[in-house]
Amino acid sequence: MATVQKITLPANTATLIIIGDGRRVALQGGQFFIGGSNVDLDNGMFISGGREFIDLGNVALGETIYAFSDSENFITIFYYTTIL
User: Fold this and answer.
1) Residue 61 to residue 32: CA distance in whole angstroms
2) Whole-model pTM?
3) Which residues fall within 8 angstroms of residue 11, CB to CB, at 6 or more apart?
4) Residue 59 DSSP label
5) CB burial string 11-44: b at 16+ within 10 A, e below
6) Average pLDDT of 54-79?
7) SS3 for 65?
8) What is the mean pLDDT of the chain?
9) Distance between CA atoms of 63 and 53, rounded to whole angstroms?
10) Residues paired with residue 31 on neighbouring β-strands, in sequence order
11) What's the pLDDT at 50?
12) Which residue in 24, 36, 64, 68 has the most C-beta neighbors within 10 A?
């Protein structure tokens, strides 16, 4: 089962996008950086891909992920679980 969340990422602002709850997470969006609360153009992992899904794997309970972009951007976050 999947849950989808769409987030508007304002320009030049580190924005909390994920608070982990153990589910698997994938991202889709334009060009942005992800990282900790201090993420910016010089500090974070660069993500580029409007059509590709970026699979972050399972995000641990309470783990936080922030995003940053130098222009307004939109990110779609997919939370999903699998039943074995």
Assistant:
1) 24
2) 0.90
3) 69, 70, 71, 72, 73
4) P
5) eeebbebbebeebebbbbbeebbbbeeebeeeeb
6) 95
7) strand
8) 92
9) 20
10) 48
11) 74
12) 68
The burial of 45, by beta-carbon neighbours within 10 Å (0-12 exposed, 13-18 middle, 19 or more buried), is given as exposed
**CA 75, CA 33: separation in Å to the nearest integer?**
11
Euclidean distance between CA atoms 12 and 71, whole angstroms = 7
Give the pLDDT score at 18. 96
Q: Which residue has the higher pLDDT, 3 or 52?
A: 3
The percentage of residues in the chain with a pLDDT greater than 70, rounded to a whole number, is 96
Closest by Cα among 72, 54, 57, 61 to 15: 72
Report residue 58 as tokens.
């399972």
Q: Which two tokens stand for residue 4?
A: 């989808």
